[in-house]
Amino acid sequence: MNRFPLSHHTRRGRRNLTLLATVVALGLAATFGLLVYLDDPVQDLSYGQFRRKLAEGGVSSARVGPAAIQGLLAPASPEAAAVSYRVSRLGMEHDEDLIRLLEAHVPNGDYDAEPAPSPVWTMAVPTVMFLMMVAVLALVVARSGGMGSALAFSKSRPRVYGADEPRVTFESVAGHDEVVAELREVVDFLRTPGKFQSLGGRIPKGVLLVGAPGTGKTLLARAVAGEAGVPFFSLSGSDFVELFVGVGAARVRSLFARAQAKAPSLIFIDELDAIGKARGAGGSGGHDERDQTLNQLLVEMDGFDADRGVILLAATNRPETLDPALVRPGRFDRQVVVDRPDLVGREQILKVHSRVVPLADDLSLRQIAAMTPGFVGADLANLVNEAALLAARRGKDHVGQPEFEDGIERLIAGPEKRQRLLRPDEKQRIAYHEAGHALVARSLPQTDPVHKVSIVGRGAAALGYTLYRPEDDRFLHTRTALEHAVCCLLGGTLAEEIALGEASDGCTSDLSRATEIASRMVLDFGMSPVLGRLRYSGDGDAARGYSERTAREIDLEVRRIVGEAMTKARAILEDRREALDRLADRLIERETLNAADLDELLGR
Ligand code: ADP
Ligand code: ZN
After folding, report:
1. How far is the CA of 144 from the centre of ligand 1 (A)?
2. Which CATH number does the domain 343-413 belong to among 3.40.50.1820, 1.10.8.60, 3.40.50.300, 3.40.1170.60?
3. Does domain 159-338 have CATH number 1.10.290.10?
4. Tens-place pLDDT, residues 560-601
5. What is the residue with the minimal CA distance to atom 17 of ligand 1?
6. I need a surface site. Which of 9, 397, 479, 550 has the fewest CB within 10 A?
7. Catalytic site positions
């Protein structure tokens, strides 16, 4: 509900005025309302009674709160005074049907629902809230002399925040140069939508920021709005979880309406996966709410005109779980990966956050960065904070190495946080794994060139990755190219085995991709001499059944292809063992290597 003008997106001055007015009004309302409340009894109804009344058309307004439903009953006769009712919802499950009933039976759509409360909210404030609510209710009733339009409950609105926080620019974002460069285009567009268009630029509509929590996605979005000087409307996907059916969709609608009214503007949806999960995924039914919200989001994205200057940014850590409809052209068709920071990145982030902190002269932020592999921006911001607090507590006027070291220990105390920091032996293993991928790729002619190798991962887990730059104009892959791709995929786990004695479990996705390529070679591409040039899988007419014996042969052929690739990759790695060591050592030291670094280390 909308008692809190503070959450509105307005300028500070007006905001304060509104706030003052509201406080005064609430005060008056409380005093006055209480009086009215005393001789205007509230009828307590059970949930069942309420539903029955509702279905009979006996309810003229309703406001569904976290703990109770209340409103006015329809008067028995035109002259009779309206009677308030109250229904406790404590311990009630969410009733998916309720909104439908309300829609059907409450005149003029005079109902409103609110999301499930946070625990503090439920425990600490309910009594006061209830009194205030009744007070406001009573005031409104008294003012308008009764009922009907009296209960013009405001519709719940999307939470819009960040507007009054200090303006953020790209200066505050460290270590994301590539991402910033990409987002500058969005800034340019927001600054002068018209000009951009007349130059024939393709207007970005939705940009998806992909990266682990705490890597600075929200910060980047705020910086885009700050750089462009446009309003920033932000909402988190998890705000929609556990809402009544229909409310999430209404919020999406309202969010877009408000952003459009203030265009040019920026909308940011954090945790997009919370609403954007593929529809129908996850079994157990009951996803109505999410589906409706998602549908509404799609409708709004298609409906709004990008030329008006509204741009949508969203963040997720799991782009693969998103509904395919969301990433179609014209929606979130641009993805920007926000990496975990490498050594240099971490140093830069530490620098940004310690700008206002007096540092000891002999402190080396590079060294602190070297001690914190696996930390993301949010961790590093915390670390600077923690170190500064420790220094203050120790009565020092400068923050030094000991404070940072103790700060790191504090931050990683506790078993679950400890895995934030990459253990040295894991760092070495990841380095060999990625070096293996890269070395095999560089040793085989028919593979995509390696663009970047890194041992700071991009996903939820802090594992590494090797990026290939596919040749853009290639549509067809020869049998050799596919075999080589399988070799590259196996290079990681093989390098671990060769250098460290045994492989680890960090290879599942490599193996499943290798298996997939090998299977398709046999099933789809007719590349197995044993099975011949037939297609064994496929849909509709192309599908052909095959015997159990053929199924066995298919298995054997897939295994043969993977086995041969294994032999080949192993030979390469054993052959170039010292190059593998060199690569891994450099990775441990620098954490990311680009194509030029690889040229330097391995020769062309
Ligand atoms: P995300 O949205 O990716 O979860 P946030 O943007 O909320 O991460 O990051 C939380 C905080 O961590 C930021 O407000 C900022 O103080 C700090 N931070 C994260 N990444 C960076 C970065 N690259 N540069 C500077 N500060 C960062
Ligand atoms: Zn791998």
Report:
1. 49
2. 1.10.8.60
3. no
4. 999 999 999 999 999 999 999 999 999 999 888 988 999 999
5. 378
6. 397
7. 434
